[in-house]
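EI: anyone free to look at a 78-residue chain?
SC: sure, send it
EI:
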Amino acid sequence: MTIDGVVVGFDDDRGDGWIECDGARWYFHCVAIADGSRHLDNGLEVTGTRVAGHRGADEVSDVRPRRYEPVEPLAART
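SC: here you go
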């Protein structure tokens, strides 16, 4: 399952954080950040994959910033 949400807390010392999506909070660890950067800023819109976690609770893996493709204005499409 894909999770699209916002980073609402990231602790550099612990290397983990939380993503809020549709009112729920999902845990992620820095090793789950797709580009290997080990840090994400609070407020960053991200996407990831919900997976079974090591301690029984689901968490998010393959976390990456959401990228928006520019949309051509409607007037240009006619």
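EI: The longest strand covers residues 2-11.
SC: 👍
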